[in-house]
Write a structure and sequence with these properties.
With 43 residues, the protein is mainly alpha-helical.
C-alpha cells in the first residue's frame, strides 16, 4: 500500500500564484510587458 503523497511546501506556495501569468506567456515575458507599460510607477 502506498502512502498518500504529501503536498510539497513549494507547491503550496507557488499555487498561490496560479493564474497570475496569462496562459501561453512566460513569467519573464509578462514581467517585461508590465515594466514597459510603467505598471506600478508613481508620477
Amino acid at each position: 500500500m502506498k502512502k498518500p503523497r504529501r503536498k510539497s511546501v513549494v507547491d503550496e506556495l507557488l499555487g498561490a500564484f496560479e493564474g497570475a501569468v496569462p496562459e501561453g506567456e512566460t513569467s519573464t515575458e509578462y514581467l517585461k510587458k508590465l515594466r514597459e507599460s510603467g505598471y506600478g510607477k508613481l508620477s
